[in-house]
Amino acid sequence: MLRTLSVLALAFLAGCTAEPAPAPPPPPRSTLQLAPPSSSAPAVDVPQVSSPLEVGKFDKEPCAVLTAAQARAVHKLVKSELGQGTTDLPACQWRDDHLNGVRITFARGGGLRDTYTNQRPGTGYFEPTTLAGYPAVYAGKADQRQLGRCSLTVGVRNDEIMTVESDLGSSFSPSSRGSCEAVKKAAEAAIVTIKKG
């Protein structure tokens, strides 16, 4: 019995004098730098329409935005045809005797903001301008202006745009910049007609 107590006492004293086990080393610090939470994309600076046009009658009848005389002055356009637009609103195709011409459409929604935000950097062309006092932009996902195809979008209201596109084909002369001149003339004439009501 005495021997057992002596062994226990020695074990107790040994336990008291033993050094504690070393703490595990801290995990290595990562060299990966975490980016701060991304903020929202910067706001797009879109010009506002200061004098909105009353287009209710014309966006449903886009062929009415050009008179016969205006259409001839644009590019000797002589016939129009109402068709399906890219939205729930119809489109109008004006053509010359060789089936070249311009297409006019309206779209409601985000106005020019949609055109600005849908343009991918480094592709096509994007050239803001002003037309008869209204903000506008020449823009296309592919630059085919030298092939007679030019697109001009005009902000007629902050929530609505008018787009005029040319497809001049064989009647187009690249050196004359006729494709964009045609859409500019058509858009200017359309604004005059819309203002007259």
Describe this structure in words.
The chain has 197 residues and is α+β, with helices and mostly antiparallel strands. 25% of the residues lie in helices and 25% in strands. It contains four helices and seven strands. The protein has helices at 2-17, 68-75, 112-118, 178-196; strands at residues 79-84, 90-95, 101-108, 125-131, 134-140, 151-157, 160-167. The protein has a seven-stranded antiparallel beta sheet with strand order 1-2-3-7-6-5-4. Helix 2 (68-75) runs antiparallel to helix 4. The longest helix is centred in the last third of the chain and has 19 residues, at 178-196. It is globular. Residues 1-17 and 26-42 have low confidence and may be disordered.
Which radius of gyration do the C-alpha atoms yield? 35 Å
Counting DSSP E segments of at least 2 residues, the number of strands comes to 7
Q: What string gives the helices and strands in order?
A: HHEEEHEEEEH
Strand order of the largest sheet: 1-2-3-7-6-5-4
Unreliable runs: 1-17, 26-42
Count of DSSP helices?
4
Give a short account of the largest sheet. Answer: 7 strands, antiparallel
Task: Sum up the overall morphology in one term.
Answer: globular
